[in-house]
Amino acid sequence: MDLSDLDVAESVLDLIGKTPMVQLKKIASGSPCPIIAKIETTNPGGSIKDRAAIAMIDAAEKEGLLKPGGTIIEPTSGNTGVGLAIVAAQRGYKCVFVMTDKVSAEKVSLLRAYGSEVVVCPGAVEPDDPNSYYSTAERLVKETPNAFQPNQYHNSNNPKAHYETTGPEIWEQTNGEITHFVAGAGTGGTISGVGKFLKEMNKDIQIVVADPENSVFSGGSGRPYLVEGVGEDFWPTTYDQSVVDLTIPISDADSFSMTKRVTEEEGLLIGGSCGTAVAGALKLAKDLSKDDLVVVLLPDSGRGYLSKIFNPVWMAKMGFSNSDNDTPSHKSVLDAVNFRNSETVELLYLNPEETVSSALKTMEKNEISHLPVAVGEMPISAAEVLGSISKEILINNSENKDGLTVKDFLQPPLEIIGVGENIFNVVKLFDKSKTFLVLDKGRPITVLTKSEIEAFVSESENL
């Protein structure tokens, strides 16, 4: 049968792009100007990364960099991997994706569902560390015959895809009336490609990046943050700073809160980086007029974050919210922290390179048997916590401690509890742990011991 006259795509790749736009009426009800969302979740892979994926593979095939039967290897937070996996499925390539351990389990499972191999690496390491996901991907490319790395952070076809498709779509859909474009910046492909096109059409259009607080784009050092798929700890060559007019830093807490609000109020199930972008758009719009038109790009769906942002247990444990089943009068972890001597509130932790003797002195001085092990200076993030150490293990090995450091005796991380959790629920965890790491909005703030919690509970019951 001849299907040429039917409204049927020849393959799933023909469904990439031409995504719809919708006004965010409820979220932006207090905004002086309309805020329009570009919904990239309608791409077959569920994200905007499908656009860059097909553009990079098309170019690689034309240049002879990717040959039949080859293997695509790429470091990714998930969405680019899905886009590449879809192209690979259609064209007969194998895929190996390298991800950090902060990526949700759903994203790992999703890539494996496409038949891809996934390698998970630690996220709290420098980009040039041999164990980083960038370094691991480069090593795998060298070790794998007929391998190709799209290298989305440095591949000019990434921003080119958005210059040729996403930008023109936005211009056409808004009849050229757009005045501000807001998006996150990970590889920089979207903001750079769309920004370049829109600036060529109207030099007065403002290009705005909504970015995690610790990302290099917003002036941070790139230290870990919890929102996925946006921000960076280095400057990708695909990021064109010349087209960006403004960068708005957004906290993890604001990103997650906005993600849930958009989902619940607008009926759009979005991911955490979308929450970052919308939060940035709302901050921007406060100073605009009724004659402005803001377009915010929503890159992916919230289906990859059901175990995190949309999981009340995870949100409470990370210190972003109260326990879901608590009453307003419950005694919280924060109450227990404030109950003890204020001199002990500061977080004590050990550096993995610290000597055993130094670690023992710290633990004995502060009369504590377990401490977290983390990299970086305060305030540290949850992702910078590498594990824990016990005084007992150090003492048992003290005779042979010369030249040894904390990392030689590293144990699993302490049990984490959020500041808003019910302290009586924490008591139920005593059979699992005697020392707890307290988190507030994703950041470790102190350690609570079993004895401190018991003292607080006892006092509370006597009131």
Please, could you describe this protein's structure?
There is one protein chain. With 463 residues, the protein is an alpha/beta fold. The protein has 3 domains: 13-47 and 158-305, Rossmann fold (3-Layer(aba) Sandwich), CATH 3.40.50; 49-148, Rossmann fold, CATH 3.40.50.1100; 313-462, CBS-domain (Roll), CATH 3.10.580. The chain is built from 14 helices and 15 strands. It has a 6-stranded mixed beta sheet. α7 (252-266) packs across α8. The radius of gyration is 24 Å and the shape is globular. The N and C termini lie far apart (81 Å). The model has no long low-confidence stretch (mean pLDDT 91).
Q: Notable features of this structure?
A:
Rossmann fold; 15 strands; 3 domains; single chain; 4-stranded parallel β-sheet; alpha/beta; 463 residues; CBS-domain; globular; 14 helices
